[in-house]
Structure of 3-isopropylmalate dehydrogenase:
Amino acid sequence: SDSYSLLILPGDGIGPEVMAEVVKVIDWFQANRGMSFKVSHDLVGGSAYDKHGTPLADETMAKAQAVDAVLLGAVGGPKYDDLDFSVKPERGLLRLRKEMDLYANLRPAQCFDALADFSSLKREVVAGLDILIVRELTSGVYFGEPRGIHEDNNNPDNEGGRVGINTQRYTSGEIRRVARSAFELARKRQNKVCSMEKANVMESGILWREEVQWVHDNEYPDVELTHMYADNGAMQLVRKPQQFDVIVTDNLFGDILSDAAAMLTGSLGMLPSASLGAPMANGRPKALYEPVHGSAPDIAGQGKANPIACILSFAMALRYSFNEGQAAGDLEAAVEKVLADGVRTADLMGPEGGTPVSTSDMGDRIVAAL
Amino acid sequence: SDSYSLLILPGDGIGPEVMAEVVKVIDWFQANRGMSFKVSHDLVGGSAYDKHGTPLADETMAKAQAVDAVLLGAVGGPKYDDLDFSVKPERGLLRLRKEMDLYANLRPAQCFDALADFSSLKREVVAGLDILIVRELTSGVYFGEPRGIHEDNNNPDNEGGRVGINTQRYTSGEIRRVARSAFELARKRQNKVCSMEKANVMESGILWREEVQWVHDNEYPDVELTHMYADNGAMQLVRKPQQFDVIVTDNLFGDILSDAAAMLTGSLGMLPSASLGAPMANGRPKALYEPVHGSAPDIAGQGKANPIACILSFAMALRYSFNEGQAAGDLEAAVEKVLADGVRTADLMGPEGGTPVSTSDMGDRIVAAL
Ligand SMILES: CC(C)[C@H](C(=O)O)[C@@H](O)C(=O)O
Ligand SMILES: CC(C)[C@H](C(=O)O)[C@@H](O)C(=O)O
């Protein structure tokens, strides 16, 4: 069978710990399912800065471009808070997204039955929740020019004398391609897409709405499409999240709304993400997989981290990069089984108790359940 | 005593209905508290467009500039959905905010005890909730130039051939003045401010963070100040909203986050807002008061709307424009009493039942409770 090449970038904080558990899972699939992975490791974020003075070395970038899929842990930490903007850990991640042109960021917000009581929302509001947010990831205000801070000394009204600028810029082509991703994904789900912007205030939002509608009318008339202002979207996510199937939105709104949606589930330690680009020569999309949670420096190195989000990110890799839907499903089922058995890392330990386990134990249990 | 001048702009949808109840309250304060209001009425939004072809006529703008306070109902409706951007109902509201220079938008998210079960969040997460979001309202991406949609025909990579642009632009002076508003308000509350931006991605966010910190260090060192990325802010609002006292943030983040915060309370029909600018010659700030809810065209004209948000907006006017804190408190207490008595408009009717009342009945009950 095929050999799959993977670049593992554990990053900072709990990144290396959770990634070690993913490696166990990869090994299991190699040993038991006849899959063959060619795995290399490298640095990103603060750990890359410590070694190379940059959060992503050029050679690492080149490796990322060459593999089938990148698996990333998490980046950042207080140690790097005072670094210059240009070398902050986040820039490593943003460079990967931009240069690999990973325009479609898939963020499922799924509520696991065994964990529904962790949500700050009422059980009946979130039980069975299964939303997929498709966030545009390579454009918008994250990357638009001009940008920066400059002096504004000739303006006596401007106490402080500075101006900060960022540019929200979208081309119709950028909008259409991520819209297509959303419609394709919806067809395999509940066939519903809700597009969010602020077309009542921003012209870039008008363009967004018109182009999403164009793709719908010309290519996906069978999918149900609605539009919602992003502020109302934030409200509706809190009020009645189950009204949504797929949400498609821009980079900045997607950042905020997907985090709000993630928190609805109450268990951030469970949520994976995939960032996908155009197909490569071998037909596989450019791809990076990472957990939604951050580097959690406060618990790093203590065996407390929950590796499930990172493991489920690998399940997404199996599904979206390697077309191994069956294997992905088996891995997800193994996670559900372990949860149903009451196995709990610290973040998942609720009033009903359960079997407390370390990061590494959790990985072992999931492998055993496979 | 003083005479207070008010311009009432009921607007569209349920705006006129809820404003009619505010007028009853104003009349009560005139009759019973020796206050004197000079009230004029005019059009804004779709209703202004219908009459004048613009969502805010120049004479209306001039009147708004001349009064002590503007009370606004709500704008918009499906009838106006296809209007050109430049004459949409929202432009009337945005013009008022911009030309009156109402830079500090105060959006309390308060959970009323009698209504805590309306929240989609668990009672213990929201009971007693009392957050104040201070949103910058006259700058940022809402107003920055350049903006617009243009052709991009020489770019073969851009399928669709258009580009949409908006500009996020903040001066240090704009940030400092709204930060001062937030710190002043915090001193009268729990003395805590959390500032939100995306300084990890946007230079305008770096400027925001630095200037808020500057105002703190130089002028309000006694207030506790923290900073949070806006995506984490959205998460924390869902996870544990009671950790916040005052939140200060920019125009766009404020739009999204204040709506999410509003929905935490579960009763949008209860939430007022104030938009304040610099002091006028008489010492009162330029001011506009409006409910957080929209024009709700689906229930307009049926006597179903809840007038409380609009009435509590008038309470904010009493407090912030007229320094009538006692009267404001009395009005708020009257609202709480009526709620505690089980009086409910349709939107507030829960499983435990209550006395169903119309918009107009609710106004009468509140006046009676005064
Ligand atoms: C770390 C940061 C740059 C990043 C973002 O803002 O996109 C993160 O919040 C995310 O959502 O992946
Ligand atoms: C109506 C609209 C222009 C407005 C905004 O985006 O500011 C509204 O959502 C608000 O928050 O007051």
